[in-house]
Amino acid sequence: MREAISVPYLKAGFKEWVFTTDHKKIGLMYLTTSYIFFLVAGFFGLVIRFEQTVPGQQVVPNDFYNYLLTGHGAVLLLWWAIASHIGGFGNFLLPLMIGAKDVAFPRLNALSWWAFFGASVLVLLTLIPGNHIKMMWTGYPPYSATGDAGVTALYVFIIHLVGISSIATAVNFITTYIKMRAPGIHFWNTNMFVHTLIAANVIQLVGVPSLAGAVTMLLLDKYLGTNFYNPAKGGDPLLYQNVFWFYSHPVVYVQILPVFGFFSEIVPTFARRPLFGYKTMIFAVWGIVLLSFMVWIHHMFVSGVPDWIRVIMSYTTILIAVPTGIKIFNWIGTLHGGAIILRTPMLYALGGIFMFLIGGLTGIPNAMVAIDLGISDSLFIVGHFHYVLGMAVTLGVLGAIVYWFPKMTGKMYPDGIGKLSFWLTFIGANLFYFFQMVVGMLGNPRRYPDYPPIPEWITLHQIQTAGAIILGLGILVFTIGAIKGLLSGEKAPDNPWQSQSLEWQIPSPAPVDNFGEEHPKVEPDYHPYKYGAPPVF
Over 60: is that where the pLDDT of 2 sits? Predict the structure, then answer.
Protein backbone atom coordinates (compact mmCIF):
# COMPACT_ATOMS: atom_id res chain seq x y z
CA MET A 1 0.00 0.00 0.00
CA ARG A 2 2.75 2.44 0.89
CA GLU A 3 4.37 1.81 -2.52
CA ALA A 4 1.14 2.83 -4.18
CA ILE A 5 1.20 6.06 -2.21
CA SER A 6 4.83 6.92 -2.86
CA VAL A 7 4.85 6.74 -6.66
CA PRO A 8 4.35 10.11 -8.43
CA TYR A 9 0.98 10.00 -10.13
CA LEU A 10 2.28 10.86 -13.60
CA LYS A 11 4.64 7.87 -13.43
CA ALA A 12 2.31 5.50 -11.60
CA GLY A 13 1.27 2.17 -13.09
CA PHE A 14 -2.06 0.39 -12.89
CA LYS A 15 -1.37 -1.10 -9.44
CA GLU A 16 -0.46 2.27 -7.95
CA TRP A 17 -3.68 3.83 -9.20
CA VAL A 18 -5.88 0.94 -8.04
CA PHE A 19 -4.47 0.78 -4.50
CA THR A 20 -3.71 4.46 -3.99
CA THR A 21 -4.77 6.52 -1.01
CA ASP A 22 -3.04 9.67 -2.32
CA HIS A 23 -5.51 12.55 -2.48
CA LYS A 24 -4.06 13.77 -5.79
CA LYS A 25 -4.52 10.44 -7.58
CA ILE A 26 -8.02 10.04 -6.15
CA GLY A 27 -8.90 13.57 -7.25
CA LEU A 28 -7.69 12.90 -10.77
CA MET A 29 -9.64 9.62 -10.91
CA TYR A 30 -12.81 11.44 -9.85
CA LEU A 31 -12.20 14.20 -12.39
CA THR A 32 -11.45 11.83 -15.27
CA THR A 33 -14.47 9.63 -14.54
CA SER A 34 -16.80 12.59 -14.20
CA TYR A 35 -15.55 14.09 -17.48
CA ILE A 36 -16.13 10.82 -19.35
CA PHE A 37 -19.67 10.62 -17.99
CA PHE A 38 -20.14 14.31 -18.84
CA LEU A 39 -19.37 13.48 -22.48
CA VAL A 40 -21.79 10.53 -22.43
CA ALA A 41 -24.59 12.60 -20.87
CA GLY A 42 -23.85 15.42 -23.30
CA PHE A 43 -24.28 12.97 -26.18
CA PHE A 44 -27.63 11.94 -24.67
CA GLY A 45 -28.57 15.63 -24.65
CA LEU A 46 -27.69 16.02 -28.33
CA VAL A 47 -29.89 13.05 -29.25
CA ILE A 48 -32.73 14.60 -27.24
CA ARG A 49 -32.23 17.89 -29.06
CA PHE A 50 -32.16 16.24 -32.51
CA GLU A 51 -35.40 14.45 -31.62
CA GLN A 52 -37.08 17.77 -30.84
CA THR A 53 -35.82 19.73 -33.83
CA VAL A 54 -39.13 19.22 -35.65
CA PRO A 55 -42.41 17.58 -34.61
CA GLY A 56 -42.87 13.83 -34.96
CA GLN A 57 -40.58 10.93 -34.18
CA GLN A 58 -37.15 11.69 -35.68
CA VAL A 59 -34.38 9.70 -34.01
CA VAL A 60 -35.53 7.49 -31.12
CA PRO A 61 -38.83 5.95 -29.97
CA ASN A 62 -40.68 7.58 -27.10
CA ASP A 63 -39.72 4.93 -24.54
CA PHE A 64 -36.00 5.30 -25.26
CA TYR A 65 -36.40 9.08 -25.20
CA ASN A 66 -37.54 8.78 -21.58
CA TYR A 67 -34.40 6.79 -20.77
CA LEU A 68 -32.16 9.39 -22.44
CA LEU A 69 -33.89 12.16 -20.50
CA THR A 70 -33.45 10.29 -17.22
CA GLY A 71 -29.80 9.46 -17.89
CA HIS A 72 -28.94 12.95 -19.13
CA GLY A 73 -30.30 14.61 -16.01
CA ALA A 74 -29.05 12.14 -13.40
CA VAL A 75 -25.54 11.79 -14.80
CA LEU A 76 -24.94 15.50 -15.32
CA LEU A 77 -26.20 16.31 -11.83
CA LEU A 78 -24.43 13.56 -9.89
CA TRP A 79 -21.34 12.76 -11.99
CA TRP A 80 -20.53 16.14 -13.46
CA ALA A 81 -22.02 18.87 -11.30
CA ILE A 82 -20.98 17.24 -8.00
CA ALA A 83 -18.18 14.73 -8.57
CA SER A 84 -16.04 16.89 -10.85
CA HIS A 85 -15.41 19.68 -8.38
CA ILE A 86 -16.01 18.04 -4.99
CA GLY A 87 -14.48 14.64 -5.68
CA GLY A 88 -12.07 15.91 -8.33
CA PHE A 89 -10.83 19.38 -7.45
CA GLY A 90 -11.77 19.05 -3.79
CA ASN A 91 -9.51 16.05 -3.32
CA PHE A 92 -6.67 17.48 -5.36
CA LEU A 93 -6.69 21.01 -3.95
CA LEU A 94 -7.93 20.95 -0.35
CA PRO A 95 -4.71 19.61 1.24
CA LEU A 96 -2.56 21.79 -1.04
CA MET A 97 -4.48 24.95 -0.20
CA ILE A 98 -4.27 24.45 3.58
CA GLY A 99 -0.70 23.11 3.70
CA ALA A 100 -1.56 19.49 4.57
CA LYS A 101 0.15 16.28 3.44
CA ASP A 102 -3.13 14.52 2.64
CA VAL A 103 -6.72 14.35 3.78
CA ALA A 104 -7.50 13.29 7.35
CA PHE A 105 -8.64 9.77 6.44
CA PRO A 106 -6.83 8.56 3.29
CA ARG A 107 -8.35 5.06 3.31
CA LEU A 108 -11.85 6.42 3.79
CA ASN A 109 -11.08 8.66 0.83
CA ALA A 110 -10.19 5.62 -1.27
CA LEU A 111 -13.39 3.91 -0.11
CA SER A 112 -15.43 6.92 -1.22
CA TRP A 113 -13.88 6.69 -4.69
CA TRP A 114 -14.67 2.97 -4.99
CA ALA A 115 -18.28 3.54 -3.92
CA PHE A 116 -18.48 6.20 -6.63
CA PHE A 117 -16.91 3.78 -9.11
CA GLY A 118 -19.47 1.12 -8.15
CA ALA A 119 -22.27 3.59 -8.86
CA SER A 120 -20.61 4.35 -12.21
CA VAL A 121 -20.68 0.66 -13.13
CA LEU A 122 -24.39 0.48 -12.27
CA VAL A 123 -25.03 3.49 -14.51
CA LEU A 124 -23.33 1.66 -17.37
CA LEU A 125 -25.55 -1.37 -16.70
CA THR A 126 -28.59 0.80 -17.43
CA LEU A 127 -27.38 1.06 -21.03
CA ILE A 128 -28.28 -2.61 -21.53
CA PRO A 129 -31.76 -3.10 -23.05
CA GLY A 130 -34.09 -4.24 -20.29
CA ASN A 131 -32.22 -2.21 -17.66
CA HIS A 132 -33.34 1.22 -18.83
CA ILE A 133 -34.55 3.62 -16.15
CA LYS A 134 -37.34 5.76 -17.61
CA MET A 135 -38.79 7.81 -14.76
CA MET A 136 -36.75 11.02 -15.00
CA TRP A 137 -33.97 11.78 -12.54
CA THR A 138 -36.51 12.83 -9.89
CA GLY A 139 -38.03 9.33 -9.65
CA TYR A 140 -41.50 10.60 -8.68
CA PRO A 141 -43.99 8.00 -7.42
CA PRO A 142 -46.48 6.58 -8.07
CA TYR A 143 -45.16 6.23 -11.64
CA SER A 144 -41.69 5.13 -10.50
CA ALA A 145 -43.26 2.21 -8.60
CA THR A 146 -44.81 0.81 -11.80
CA GLY A 147 -43.30 -1.55 -14.34
CA ASP A 148 -43.23 1.16 -17.03
CA ALA A 149 -40.64 3.14 -15.04
CA GLY A 150 -37.89 0.59 -15.66
CA VAL A 151 -35.52 -0.94 -13.12
CA THR A 152 -36.19 1.26 -10.11
CA ALA A 153 -33.84 -0.87 -7.98
CA LEU A 154 -30.85 0.21 -10.08
CA TYR A 155 -31.82 3.85 -9.58
CA VAL A 156 -32.03 3.34 -5.80
CA PHE A 157 -28.73 1.46 -5.53
CA ILE A 158 -26.98 4.11 -7.63
CA ILE A 159 -28.27 6.80 -5.25
CA HIS A 160 -27.16 4.76 -2.22
CA LEU A 161 -23.61 4.26 -3.53
CA VAL A 162 -23.25 7.90 -4.51
CA GLY A 163 -24.62 8.81 -1.08
CA ILE A 164 -22.04 6.63 0.70
CA SER A 165 -19.31 8.29 -1.34
CA SER A 166 -20.69 11.76 -0.59
CA ILE A 167 -21.02 11.27 3.18
CA ALA A 168 -17.54 9.72 3.45
CA THR A 169 -16.08 12.62 1.48
CA ALA A 170 -17.94 15.20 3.57
CA VAL A 171 -16.70 13.75 6.87
CA ASN A 172 -13.17 13.57 5.47
CA PHE A 173 -13.01 17.10 4.08
CA ILE A 174 -14.57 18.79 7.11
CA THR A 175 -12.19 16.96 9.45
CA THR A 176 -9.23 17.76 7.20
CA TYR A 177 -9.98 21.47 7.27
CA ILE A 178 -10.56 21.60 11.03
CA LYS A 179 -7.59 19.48 12.12
CA MET A 180 -4.89 19.59 9.43
CA ARG A 181 -4.37 23.23 8.47
CA ALA A 182 -0.78 24.43 8.48
CA PRO A 183 0.10 26.87 11.29
CA GLY A 184 -0.87 30.33 10.06
CA ILE A 185 -3.85 29.17 7.97
CA HIS A 186 -7.06 30.27 9.68
CA PHE A 187 -10.67 31.04 8.85
CA TRP A 188 -9.96 34.55 7.57
CA ASN A 189 -7.11 33.70 5.19
CA THR A 190 -8.48 30.46 3.76
CA ASN A 191 -9.04 30.24 0.00
CA MET A 192 -12.63 30.88 -1.05
CA PHE A 193 -12.62 27.55 -2.88
CA VAL A 194 -11.97 25.82 0.46
CA HIS A 195 -14.75 27.80 2.15
CA THR A 196 -17.21 26.88 -0.59
CA LEU A 197 -16.02 23.25 -0.59
CA ILE A 198 -16.55 22.87 3.16
CA ALA A 199 -19.92 24.63 2.95
CA ALA A 200 -21.04 22.27 0.18
CA ASN A 201 -20.00 19.25 2.24
CA VAL A 202 -21.93 20.48 5.27
CA ILE A 203 -25.01 20.46 3.03
CA GLN A 204 -24.13 16.94 1.89
CA LEU A 205 -23.78 15.73 5.47
CA VAL A 206 -27.19 17.09 6.43
CA GLY A 207 -29.09 16.37 3.24
CA VAL A 208 -27.91 13.06 1.76
CA PRO A 209 -29.61 10.91 4.45
CA SER A 210 -32.91 12.54 3.48
CA LEU A 211 -32.53 11.49 -0.16
CA ALA A 212 -31.41 7.99 0.87
CA GLY A 213 -34.53 7.60 3.00
CA ALA A 214 -36.80 8.80 0.19
CA VAL A 215 -35.48 6.33 -2.38
CA THR A 216 -35.34 3.47 0.15
CA MET A 217 -39.07 3.85 0.79
CA LEU A 218 -39.55 3.89 -2.99
CA LEU A 219 -37.65 0.58 -3.25
CA LEU A 220 -39.81 -0.96 -0.52
CA ASP A 221 -43.01 0.23 -2.20
CA LYS A 222 -42.14 -1.30 -5.56
CA TYR A 223 -40.59 -4.59 -4.54
CA LEU A 224 -41.91 -5.43 -1.05
CA GLY A 225 -45.44 -4.06 -1.27
CA THR A 226 -45.26 -1.28 1.29
CA ASN A 227 -47.41 1.80 0.82
CA PHE A 228 -45.41 4.86 1.76
CA TYR A 229 -46.31 6.58 -1.51
CA ASN A 230 -49.31 4.57 -2.77
CA PRO A 231 -52.40 6.82 -2.47
CA ALA A 232 -54.73 3.88 -3.12
CA LYS A 233 -53.65 2.33 0.19
CA GLY A 234 -53.16 5.38 2.35
CA GLY A 235 -49.74 6.49 1.13
CA ASP A 236 -48.86 10.00 -0.01
CA PRO A 237 -46.78 10.78 -3.13
CA LEU A 238 -46.19 14.28 -1.74
CA LEU A 239 -44.20 12.70 1.10
CA TYR A 240 -41.63 11.61 -1.49
CA GLN A 241 -41.54 15.05 -3.08
CA ASN A 242 -40.99 16.74 0.28
CA VAL A 243 -38.21 14.42 1.39
CA PHE A 244 -36.64 14.35 -2.08
CA TRP A 245 -36.57 18.12 -2.51
CA PHE A 246 -35.44 18.74 1.08
CA TYR A 247 -32.09 17.48 -0.22
CA SER A 248 -32.41 18.04 -3.94
CA HIS A 249 -32.76 21.78 -3.77
CA PRO A 250 -29.84 22.29 -1.36
CA VAL A 251 -27.82 20.05 -3.69
CA VAL A 252 -28.06 22.86 -6.24
CA TYR A 253 -25.76 24.80 -3.91
CA VAL A 254 -23.53 21.75 -3.46
CA GLN A 255 -23.11 21.92 -7.22
CA ILE A 256 -22.64 25.67 -7.60
CA LEU A 257 -20.84 26.78 -4.41
CA PRO A 258 -17.45 25.21 -5.32
CA VAL A 259 -17.81 26.80 -8.76
CA PHE A 260 -18.20 30.15 -7.00
CA GLY A 261 -14.93 29.18 -5.33
CA PHE A 262 -13.34 28.68 -8.77
CA PHE A 263 -14.50 32.13 -9.85
CA SER A 264 -13.08 33.61 -6.64
CA GLU A 265 -9.68 32.02 -7.32
CA ILE A 266 -9.48 32.87 -11.01
CA VAL A 267 -10.88 36.43 -11.11
CA PRO A 268 -8.38 37.99 -8.62
CA THR A 269 -5.47 36.19 -10.31
CA PHE A 270 -6.27 37.56 -13.76
CA ALA A 271 -7.43 40.98 -12.52
CA ARG A 272 -4.28 41.28 -10.35
CA ARG A 273 -6.38 42.65 -7.53
CA PRO A 274 -7.31 41.32 -4.07
CA LEU A 275 -10.72 39.68 -3.91
CA PHE A 276 -13.14 42.51 -3.17
CA GLY A 277 -15.24 42.02 -0.01
CA TYR A 278 -13.51 38.79 1.04
CA LYS A 279 -15.23 38.58 4.44
CA THR A 280 -18.65 39.37 3.02
CA MET A 281 -18.08 36.55 0.52
CA ILE A 282 -17.59 34.14 3.41
CA PHE A 283 -20.74 35.34 5.18
CA ALA A 284 -22.64 35.04 1.89
CA VAL A 285 -21.50 31.44 1.40
CA TRP A 286 -22.64 30.37 4.86
CA GLY A 287 -25.85 32.36 4.48
CA ILE A 288 -26.63 30.28 1.41
CA VAL A 289 -25.99 27.08 3.38
CA LEU A 290 -28.51 28.17 6.01
CA LEU A 291 -31.18 29.33 3.56
CA SER A 292 -30.74 26.37 1.20
CA PHE A 293 -32.84 24.13 3.46
CA MET A 294 -35.68 26.67 3.63
CA VAL A 295 -36.78 26.86 -0.02
CA TRP A 296 -37.58 23.34 -1.27
CA ILE A 297 -41.35 23.86 -1.54
CA HIS A 298 -40.86 26.11 -4.58
CA HIS A 299 -40.40 22.87 -6.55
CA MET A 300 -43.89 21.88 -5.39
CA PHE A 301 -45.96 25.02 -5.98
CA VAL A 302 -47.95 23.06 -8.59
CA SER A 303 -48.33 19.99 -6.36
CA GLY A 304 -51.25 21.10 -4.20
CA VAL A 305 -49.33 22.27 -1.13
CA PRO A 306 -51.07 24.71 1.28
CA ASP A 307 -50.99 28.40 0.42
CA TRP A 308 -49.29 29.39 3.70
CA ILE A 309 -46.18 27.32 2.93
CA ARG A 310 -46.18 28.63 -0.65
CA VAL A 311 -46.02 32.19 0.68
CA ILE A 312 -43.26 31.46 3.21
CA MET A 313 -41.01 29.67 0.74
CA SER A 314 -41.69 32.20 -1.98
CA TYR A 315 -40.12 34.80 0.33
CA THR A 316 -37.18 32.58 1.34
CA THR A 317 -36.50 31.78 -2.32
CA ILE A 318 -36.29 35.48 -3.14
CA LEU A 319 -34.18 36.06 -0.02
CA ILE A 320 -31.53 33.55 -1.06
CA ALA A 321 -30.80 35.76 -4.06
CA VAL A 322 -29.28 38.32 -1.67
CA PRO A 323 -26.08 36.42 -0.72
CA THR A 324 -25.74 35.35 -4.33
CA GLY A 325 -25.97 38.97 -5.44
CA ILE A 326 -23.27 39.89 -2.91
CA LYS A 327 -20.86 37.50 -4.61
CA ILE A 328 -21.57 38.83 -8.09
CA PHE A 329 -21.15 42.40 -6.80
CA ASN A 330 -17.82 41.44 -5.24
CA TRP A 331 -16.51 39.79 -8.42
CA ILE A 332 -17.38 42.97 -10.33
CA GLY A 333 -15.67 44.98 -7.58
CA THR A 334 -12.57 42.82 -8.00
CA LEU A 335 -12.53 43.49 -11.74
CA HIS A 336 -12.98 47.25 -11.30
CA GLY A 337 -9.64 48.98 -11.75
CA GLY A 338 -7.79 45.73 -12.29
CA ALA A 339 -5.16 44.89 -14.91
CA ILE A 340 -7.45 42.33 -16.53
CA ILE A 341 -5.78 39.55 -18.52
CA LEU A 342 -8.14 37.57 -20.75
CA ARG A 343 -6.44 34.18 -20.70
CA THR A 344 -8.58 31.06 -21.11
CA PRO A 345 -9.37 30.53 -17.39
CA MET A 346 -10.53 34.14 -17.05
CA LEU A 347 -12.79 33.85 -20.10
CA TYR A 348 -14.42 30.75 -18.65
CA ALA A 349 -14.84 32.41 -15.25
CA LEU A 350 -16.41 35.56 -16.72
CA GLY A 351 -18.62 33.46 -18.99
CA GLY A 352 -19.72 31.33 -16.06
CA ILE A 353 -20.57 34.41 -13.97
CA PHE A 354 -22.63 35.78 -16.88
CA MET A 355 -24.52 32.51 -17.31
CA PHE A 356 -25.26 32.32 -13.60
CA LEU A 357 -26.43 35.93 -13.58
CA ILE A 358 -28.91 35.32 -16.41
CA GLY A 359 -30.06 32.11 -14.77
CA GLY A 360 -30.49 33.85 -11.43
CA LEU A 361 -32.48 36.73 -12.89
CA THR A 362 -34.79 34.30 -14.69
CA GLY A 363 -35.12 32.31 -11.48
CA ILE A 364 -36.55 35.12 -9.36
CA PRO A 365 -39.92 35.06 -11.23
CA ASN A 366 -40.10 31.32 -10.50
CA ALA A 367 -40.17 32.17 -6.79
CA MET A 368 -43.47 34.00 -7.31
CA VAL A 369 -46.30 31.50 -7.01
CA ALA A 370 -48.61 33.09 -9.59
CA ILE A 371 -45.88 33.05 -12.25
CA ASP A 372 -44.54 29.62 -11.34
CA LEU A 373 -47.95 28.00 -11.70
CA GLY A 374 -47.95 29.01 -15.37
CA ILE A 375 -44.39 28.08 -16.32
CA SER A 376 -43.36 25.29 -13.95
CA ASP A 377 -43.98 22.51 -16.47
CA SER A 378 -42.68 24.41 -19.50
CA LEU A 379 -39.33 24.48 -21.27
CA PHE A 380 -38.72 27.86 -19.63
CA ILE A 381 -37.71 25.97 -16.47
CA VAL A 382 -35.32 23.77 -18.45
CA GLY A 383 -33.64 26.79 -20.04
CA HIS A 384 -33.42 28.60 -16.70
CA PHE A 385 -31.96 25.53 -15.01
CA HIS A 386 -29.32 25.06 -17.69
CA TYR A 387 -28.30 28.70 -17.40
CA VAL A 388 -28.14 28.87 -13.62
CA LEU A 389 -26.60 25.48 -13.03
CA GLY A 390 -25.79 23.52 -16.18
CA MET A 391 -23.64 26.06 -17.99
CA ALA A 392 -22.47 28.08 -14.98
CA VAL A 393 -21.09 24.83 -13.54
CA THR A 394 -19.70 23.62 -16.86
CA LEU A 395 -17.92 26.86 -17.71
CA GLY A 396 -16.60 27.07 -14.16
CA VAL A 397 -15.24 23.53 -14.16
CA LEU A 398 -13.69 23.88 -17.62
CA GLY A 399 -12.03 27.11 -16.51
CA ALA A 400 -10.75 25.37 -13.39
CA ILE A 401 -9.33 22.51 -15.47
CA VAL A 402 -7.34 24.99 -17.56
CA TYR A 403 -6.30 27.03 -14.50
CA TRP A 404 -4.98 24.08 -12.48
CA PHE A 405 -3.87 22.04 -15.51
CA PRO A 406 -0.21 23.04 -14.91
CA LYS A 407 -0.36 21.93 -11.27
CA MET A 408 -2.01 18.64 -12.17
CA THR A 409 0.04 17.71 -15.24
CA GLY A 410 3.16 19.87 -15.34
CA LYS A 411 2.02 21.04 -18.79
CA MET A 412 0.25 24.16 -20.03
CA TYR A 413 -3.19 23.89 -21.62
CA PRO A 414 -2.97 25.38 -25.18
CA ASP A 415 -4.36 28.90 -24.79
CA GLY A 416 -5.51 29.31 -28.40
CA ILE A 417 -7.50 26.07 -28.33
CA GLY A 418 -8.89 27.06 -24.95
CA LYS A 419 -10.16 30.40 -26.22
CA LEU A 420 -11.73 28.79 -29.30
CA SER A 421 -13.46 26.21 -27.12
CA PHE A 422 -14.76 28.94 -24.81
CA TRP A 423 -16.33 31.03 -27.55
CA LEU A 424 -17.94 28.03 -29.22
CA THR A 425 -19.31 26.80 -25.90
CA PHE A 426 -20.49 30.23 -24.76
CA ILE A 427 -22.19 31.18 -28.05
CA GLY A 428 -23.74 27.74 -28.51
CA ALA A 429 -25.08 27.62 -24.95
CA ASN A 430 -26.74 31.03 -25.21
CA LEU A 431 -28.33 30.20 -28.56
CA PHE A 432 -29.61 26.95 -27.10
CA TYR A 433 -30.92 27.92 -23.68
CA PHE A 434 -32.14 31.46 -24.33
CA PHE A 435 -34.46 30.30 -27.09
CA GLN A 436 -35.45 27.30 -24.97
CA MET A 437 -36.77 29.77 -22.40
CA VAL A 438 -38.56 31.71 -25.15
CA VAL A 439 -40.38 28.66 -26.50
CA GLY A 440 -41.25 27.72 -22.93
CA MET A 441 -42.84 31.13 -22.40
CA LEU A 442 -44.90 30.44 -25.53
CA GLY A 443 -46.30 27.34 -23.83
CA ASN A 444 -44.10 24.46 -24.98
CA PRO A 445 -44.22 21.84 -22.17
CA ARG A 446 -41.10 20.05 -20.97
CA ARG A 447 -40.30 16.31 -20.88
CA TYR A 448 -42.42 15.44 -23.93
CA PRO A 449 -40.63 13.96 -26.97
CA ASP A 450 -43.05 15.65 -29.37
CA TYR A 451 -44.97 18.91 -29.73
CA PRO A 452 -47.67 20.36 -32.03
CA PRO A 453 -46.54 21.67 -35.46
CA ILE A 454 -46.73 25.34 -34.46
CA PRO A 455 -44.48 27.34 -36.86
CA GLU A 456 -43.02 29.62 -34.17
CA TRP A 457 -42.15 26.64 -31.99
CA ILE A 458 -40.50 24.79 -34.87
CA THR A 459 -38.29 27.78 -35.72
CA LEU A 460 -37.22 28.20 -32.10
CA HIS A 461 -36.43 24.48 -31.77
CA GLN A 462 -34.29 24.62 -34.90
CA ILE A 463 -32.32 27.55 -33.44
CA GLN A 464 -31.84 25.52 -30.26
CA THR A 465 -30.49 22.59 -32.24
CA ALA A 466 -28.02 24.85 -34.04
CA GLY A 467 -26.89 26.16 -30.65
CA ALA A 468 -26.55 22.62 -29.29
CA ILE A 469 -24.31 21.63 -32.23
CA ILE A 470 -22.07 24.67 -31.65
CA LEU A 471 -21.97 23.87 -27.92
CA GLY A 472 -21.03 20.27 -28.66
CA LEU A 473 -18.23 21.43 -30.96
CA GLY A 474 -16.94 23.65 -28.16
CA ILE A 475 -16.75 20.70 -25.76
CA LEU A 476 -15.06 18.58 -28.44
CA VAL A 477 -12.44 21.29 -29.03
CA PHE A 478 -11.85 21.55 -25.27
CA THR A 479 -11.33 17.79 -25.03
CA ILE A 480 -8.86 17.85 -27.92
CA GLY A 481 -7.01 20.71 -26.23
CA ALA A 482 -6.74 18.76 -22.96
CA ILE A 483 -5.33 15.71 -24.76
CA LYS A 484 -2.91 17.86 -26.77
CA GLY A 485 -1.78 19.69 -23.64
CA LEU A 486 -1.23 16.44 -21.77
CA LEU A 487 0.73 14.79 -24.59
CA SER A 488 2.70 17.68 -26.06
CA GLY A 489 1.91 20.80 -24.07
CA GLU A 490 4.52 23.36 -23.13
CA LYS A 491 6.28 22.54 -19.86
CA ALA A 492 4.66 24.53 -17.08
CA PRO A 493 6.59 26.65 -14.60
CA ASP A 494 5.79 26.07 -10.95
CA ASN A 495 3.59 29.17 -10.74
CA PRO A 496 2.58 30.20 -14.28
CA TRP A 497 -0.18 32.57 -13.09
CA GLN A 498 1.93 34.25 -10.36
CA SER A 499 -0.73 33.33 -7.84
CA GLN A 500 -0.30 34.05 -4.14
CA SER A 501 -2.17 30.90 -3.11
CA LEU A 502 -0.34 28.13 -1.25
CA GLU A 503 -0.78 25.37 -3.85
CA TRP A 504 1.23 27.40 -6.36
CA GLN A 505 4.26 27.63 -4.08
CA ILE A 506 5.27 24.00 -4.73
CA PRO A 507 6.59 22.40 -7.95
CA SER A 508 4.36 21.53 -10.90
CA PRO A 509 3.17 18.82 -11.10
CA ALA A 510 2.54 18.57 -7.37
CA PRO A 511 5.11 16.29 -5.67
CA VAL A 512 4.20 13.08 -3.85
CA ASP A 513 4.58 14.53 -0.36
CA ASN A 514 3.09 17.95 -1.21
CA PHE A 515 5.14 20.22 1.07
CA GLY A 516 7.59 17.64 2.44
CA GLU A 517 7.75 16.24 5.94
CA GLU A 518 6.95 19.53 7.67
CA HIS A 519 4.08 21.96 7.27
CA PRO A 520 4.88 24.83 4.90
CA LYS A 521 6.00 28.06 6.49
CA VAL A 522 3.09 30.47 6.32
CA GLU A 523 4.00 34.11 6.89
CA PRO A 524 1.92 36.10 9.40
CA ASP A 525 0.60 38.37 6.63
CA TYR A 526 -0.19 35.51 4.21
CA HIS A 527 -3.36 35.86 2.17
CA PRO A 528 -4.22 33.97 -1.04
CA TYR A 529 -5.44 37.14 -2.76
CA LYS A 530 -2.66 39.59 -1.90
CA TYR A 531 -2.21 40.94 -5.42
CA GLY A 532 -1.06 44.26 -6.73
CA ALA A 533 2.20 43.64 -8.59
CA PRO A 534 1.97 44.10 -12.38
CA PRO A 535 1.70 40.77 -14.22
CA VAL A 536 4.41 39.39 -16.47
CA PHE A 537 2.67 36.32 -17.94
Answer: no
